[in-house]
Specification:
four-stranded antiparallel β-sheet, 8 strands, 2 domains, Jelly Rolls, 27% helix, alpha+beta, elongated
């Protein structure tokens, strides 16, 4: 048989859990809502899709999300391209709070001996949309270098990439 003390302790423990969850759940939800508001990837993507027209047609997009940490981060995205096609890469940096995030496009993956830098995005304070048109269609590797910060944050930033291809007309064939 359980003692009254055990019974009371069980009830108090259950109430503590309920009250703790009642107070912490709204705080966690408010934090999640704030994170979502800082990076509206769909809106950033729509801005880029408008920049493709009229000569280029939408092919694909990639949203890269990250948080700042106490160590430097490197994220690499592989983008395969069809030979013989003309492509346009558009980047929207409006979802980034730091000016020191680097975007670079390489010919080969990280660690390859013959890796060449093809494009480096130079972020300007008054500009959020950047354009790159590769000379040759081949597999490209986009590197996002996220600098380290003194104190890790829960703030999620994002960078949006949209890839478009040039519409061929009858005179091009």
């Amino acid at each position: 048989m359980r003692s009254i003390y055990d019974w009371v302790q069980t009830i108090v423990t259950k109430f503590k859990f309920k009250y703790i969850s009642l107070f912490t759940l709204p705080i966690l939800l408010m934090g999640a809502i704030q994170v979502a508001e800082q990076c509206d990837a769909m809106a950033l993507k729509l801005v880029l899709k408008k920049e493709l027209k009229p000569d280029y047609k939408y092919d694909s997009s990639k949203t890269t999300r990250f948080t700042y940490k106490t160590k430097t981060q490197l994220k690499e995205v592989e983008v395969p391209l069809y030979m013989g096609e003309k492509y346009r890469f558009l980047f929207n940096t409006d979802g980034i709070t730091s000016d020191s995030v680097k975007v670079e496009i390489f010919s080969k993956p990280l660690g390859h001996k013959k890796r060449k830098l093809l494009y480096s995005l130079d972020k300007k304070s008054d500009k959020n949309v950047y354009l790159y048109e590769p000379q040759r269609s081949r597999k490209l590797y986009i590197n996002y270098s996220i600098p380290k910060v003194n104190e890790a944050t829960i703030t999620k930033d994002c960078l949006v990439l949209v890839v478009g291809y040039k519409m061929k007309s009858l005179k091009d064939l």
